[in-house]
Amino acid sequence: MRTWHLLALIPFCLHGQEPPPPSTIAAPIRVDLGPMFATAERTTPVTPQGVETWTNLPGLAQGSPAYRFNLYREPLYFVLKGNRVLMHTTVNYWFEVGLRMGSYIKSMGSCGLPPETFRKARLGIQAEVSLTPDWGLDLKLTPEEPLRIDGCHITYLGYDITDKVLAGMKDNLAKATQALQGQIQDATRLRPRAEAAWLQAQQPVELAPGVFLMLNPERVRLSPWTSQGKVLTFTPEIQIRPAVCLGERPQPVPRPLPPLDLSPQPIAPGFSLQIDADLSYEHASRQLTQQLGAQPFDTEKGRFEVKRAVVRGKDGWAYLDLDLKGKVTGRLTLKGRPAFNEALGTLVLEDLDYTLETKNWITSFGEWLYRGTLRKTLTEKCSFFLDKSLKDLKEKTKAGLNRPLTPQVALSGDVDAFRVGRVEVLEDRFKVVARLEGVVQIGVNPDAR
């Protein structure tokens, strides 16, 4: 089986060479918290319990001072800052304090009752979202101190009545944030989804008949969380040794999900993959021999034909050994620089010319052999087609990067750039080195089943 590999991990793809450094895919995972915020708004009471009900001040005997209040909240306001969820609301309230006198309560003071307007205060709570190395989700809640927008501060017998009035709504906000925590945990379910995605990422993806993409994931690193609007984003950087292999379907060796490596530095989304496309000298020799066929070369001195062509390489050059029969009988050797033709997706030989030894050997035949069509024909014929085009591989890789990993998790990406770097001349083959660069991301759809 002949193999094209993208920083290949499997031994038969390396051909005895040291494995190159791994590539990475930085794939942002975006979790839309908008539906969860809407649920929090819908389920959080607009008023707390006990409105407009006289309540004794705690710690004092029956028949002692009491208070009553009314309060309603305005819509909840959510802000995402990095990995922090800030939930705020403005509350409108009034309250009154009094003394119980039998069945009658004598008012001793009020705030926000007509002819005054409702007083306002701002309540808030923060939730800091974080991941643990074992792929758990942690939410740390921090209530904010109430901010009194238009002051109304009555302390009666040592009690701050305002705090008593706001306590019920503060409790409602805390419960709403705790419920939000459960929703985020349920929506993401990170560890089972990460395990499912990790397992799926190890499976070969058939790009075309007999062409398979292997990601070969090794390690996952996480950058700090970011946010935009109502979307929370965290970017795992997946260390991979991807391979594109031809032939039989590869059989992956299962690897367990590794611990999460938490990185303090941001990770830019994107990927850069090296492609090594091999063309063995044996395969190139067969191609050239077939292209030349039994084509005769007519010259002013007579006719000859190429019976056999052998391609080999040494010291950065490609050599052609040609066995001729006819007016010229013997072996000629030409050499040229191998280069990759991006337009055709083929390997070509530039500056093709006879070697010094061959020039000395054909001197006896005269200038007519130099002036013949042999070298020109070889220059045209020395276009070695690889089994699969590198240009086609770009599109196939793009297709392989757009697929579901699980019902709730989908991989999507695009190949932005395709760059051919160099052609290496090795002991048994030519190797074309190129790179694919692009972007890739992972989307989470909590509602998918």
Question: Whole-Å distance between the termini?
Answer: 39 Å
What's the shape? rod-shaped
Assign a percent range to the helix content.
Answer: 10-25%
Total domains: 3
- Report the major sheet: 12 strands, mixed
Q: Taking all residues together, what is the mean pLDDT? A: 76
Q: What gyration radius follows from the Cα positions, in whole Å?
A: 38 Å
Helical region count?
A: 8
Which oligomerization state do the chains in this entry correspond to? Answer: single chain
Structural class designation:
alpha+beta
State which percent range the strand residues make up.
over 45%
Spans of 5+ residues with little confidence (pLDDT < 50)?
Answer: 1-19
How many strands in all? Answer: 31
Describe it for me?
- Strand 12 and strand 13 (159-160) form a beta hairpin.
- Strands 1, 2, 3, 16, 17, 18, 19, 21, 22, 29, 30 and 31 form a 12-stranded mixed sheet that branches.
- The protein is of the alpha+beta class and 449 residues long.
- It folds into 3 domains: 4-31 and 191-279 and 388-444, no CATH class; 33-188; 280-383, no CATH class.
- The protein is built from 8 helices and 31 strands.
- Helix 1 crosses helix 2.
- This is DUF4403 family protein.
- Pfam families: DUF4403.
